[in-house]
Design goal:
This protein has 200 residues and is mainly α. The chain is built from 9 helices and 3 strands; from the N terminus they run H-H-H-H-H-H-H-E-E-H-E-H. It folds into 2 domains: 66 residues, no CATH class; 108 residues, no CATH class. The chain is 70% helix and 8% strand.
Length: 200
């Protein structure tokens, strides 16, 4: 759907309007198409209605006053884009959307920073799978005298000093894959829950 552009008598007014709308489009381009249209329609409507109320002598002054009240798109739209991206991420469970949403929301509170580190930790499990394939004897879930020591890599030198037992063996990769899936959906569900609580 194409938004109906506002008609202007002066060329300069048209150029300022087009430039502003172009900046709005640039800020919201990461959003789904329908959300982009909604934002553009809302901004266009505010500009149109604002122009009807303005009483300055020239069209360009009226437009500049309206745009001044709307604010700088890059600043005004940042929280909206961050929230919409978070909504998209928690609906789709798409890792790329989640990363983008967290990056946009990282300045909106410590909780988003915590979620960012939880996902980062989760991708550490992916690294362990590849490390196990490359170096199967040094990567695993290690215990010593029946107590958990580490999940990760223990070099041959360290293992020669003390007796460590790798308890998962060939099951390490399937267990890591299952852990990744379970934790991914759990963390994303918590993120969705946090977003719902924020709206209340």
């Amino acid at each position: 759907m194409k938004i109906k552009e506002i008609e202007f008598k002066e060329t300069a007014s048209k150029r300022i309007y087009n430039s502003y709308i172009k900046r709005v489009r640039k800020v919201i381009k990461s959003l789904p198409h329908q959300d982009q249209i909604e934002v553009l329609l809302e901004f266009n409507s505010h500009i149109y209605e604002g122009l009807q109320r303005q009483k300055s002598e020239t069209e360009i002054d009226n437009l500049l006053d309206v745009l001044d009240k709307l604010g700088i798109p890059e600043e005004v739209l940042k929280p909206l884009v961050a929230d919409k991206k978070l909504e998209q991420a928690t609906k789709t469970f798409n890792p790329l959307h989640i990363i983008k949403a967290l990056m946009l929301n990282i300045t909106n509170g410590i909780s988003y920073l915590i979620f960012f580190f939880l996902y980062l930790f989760l991708f550490g499990f992916v690294y362990l799978i590849f490390a196990k394939l490359v170096n199967p004897n040094e990567v695993g879930l290690f215990f010593q005298n029946g107590s958990f020591v580490v999940i990760g890599k223990l070099s041959s030198e360290i293992r020669s000093i003390a007796v460590f037992t790798e308890v998962l063996g060939n099951w390490f990769i399937p267990v890591m894959l299952l852990s990744i899936i379970v934790f991914y959906f759990m963390i994303t569900y918590l993120l969705k829950l946090k977003r719902i609580l924020n709206k209340k």
